[in-house]
Amino acid sequence: MDRELRTKPTEIDDTALEWFTRLRGGASAADRAAFERWVAASPSHRQAFRRVQSLWSAAESPGARVAQEESENLSAYLDAMDRTKARRKARKRGVATIIVGLAVLGGAVALERPNLFQDMRADIVSARGERRTVDLPDGSTVLLDADSALAQRFTNGERRVVLLRGGAYFSVVKAAQSFVVEASSGTVEVLGTKFDVRLSNDDTVVTVAQGRVAVTSPSMQRALVEPGQQVRFDKIGIGPVRDADLAASMSWHEGRFVFYQARFADVIGELQRYRPGRLVIASAALADSRVSGSFTLDDPDAALESLRATVSFETYSILGRLTVLR
């Protein structure tokens, strides 16, 4: 069988991204020869690489412009925060470090379209501030949280999706084949049920509303989760199955976020999905502080003010794109 017929489109896209990154980083003559062979092997390879080039070109020009603006304005802003010479020099060094980091990541692409390449791998993407319901090929439905991405793998009778970013609520119709959700290299497997899957920086949270799901962590530990229960897993293993407050855990379906003794950085991460620009926490102590509360996700600025009443912090906005919390 021809290799192209056995290669999934998403695998071709992934390979195109890898070649694009390698070529921009200074490829050797051998690398370039291998790339030419890969492109010549199939028209789909050339098309995938052109898509990567097109998306990068669309983001690179505004990215360079914003990076320059951020450099100038962030330097001036931090100078104004503290006029003492020693601290001003220290902050300028910090600014230089930030700008170098942004340049390595593609300038302001990291600010305006931080998930550009990840979105290329997805079949379904929700924008910031958008909750989106989508019908899947088998008749199941998925409600995507804001700023989330999902890839479909419905081939040869298989029912499989990959949650690349964010959160999703699945309503799965019963069928002979299992329905599998891949998330952070772990899996959630069901025949027919309703459940939440949410990715965070460190782990994945699965909450079951109806039916039963089998959760397998990247380390191959397994757990069965019943209705009203919740479990977390990460690359190391899977945590204990606990009773869940379904109303709080799934309040985002209706546009609210309810949390109790949650890490401040995690709360800001959820709020970020509904707010343009980038929120940056400049204090480790602030990031690790614990907060409780409830707010509407449709008014993220009011939510920030609500958090300020609980935890004392100041906000500094730069060009409307970057907000520093300290």
TrEMBL record:
Keyword Repeat: no
Domain FecR protein span(s) in chain numbering: 123-213
Membrane-crossing segments per the record: 93-111
Statement: the UniProt record of this protein carries the keyword ATP-binding: no
Coiled-coil ranges per UniProt: none
Keywords, ordered alphabetically: Membrane, Transmembrane, Transmembrane helix
Matching Pfam families: DUF4880 (PF16220), FecR (PF04773)
Listed GO MF terms: sigma factor antagonist activity
Domain (FecR N-terminal): residue spans on this chain: 15-55
Gene3D superfamilies cross-referenced by the UniProt entry: 2.60.120.1440, 3.55.50.30
PANTHER family hit by this protein: PERIPLASMIC SIGNAL SENSOR AND SIGMA FACTOR ACTIVATOR FECR-RELATED, PROTEIN FECR
Entry protein name: FecR protein
